[in-house]
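In this section we walk through a basic example: taking a raw amino acid sequence and producing a predicted 3D structure, encoded as discrete structure tokens. The instruction is simple. Fold the sequence below.
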Amino acid sequence: MNTVISIKVDKDVKEAAQEVARSAGLTLSSLVNAYLRQVVATRRIELYAPEPMTPRLEELIAEVESELNAGKASKPFENVDDFLADLKQ
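The resulting token sequence is shown next.
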């Protein structure tokens, strides 16, 4: 027997979740049911909600990518000793 759960979610989150479900060929209802079945079967709740990047973080990432593309970054090192030796040069 099916039952109804009424929850409040942010409109944008609902629409984004519907799109994810749709891209997998699912309805939002079937996606939520699958997740709840997983919680019951594993007895684990796994959540992931990344924080949006701040404008400052976006600037820093762009700066690092620019330095990498310009060859201004250091080479990769196999171990700490090689890294420290390179610093002393």
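Looking at the output, two observations stand out. The chain has two domains: 1-49, 55-87. Residues 28-42 form the longest helix (15 residues). In the next section we compare this with other chains.
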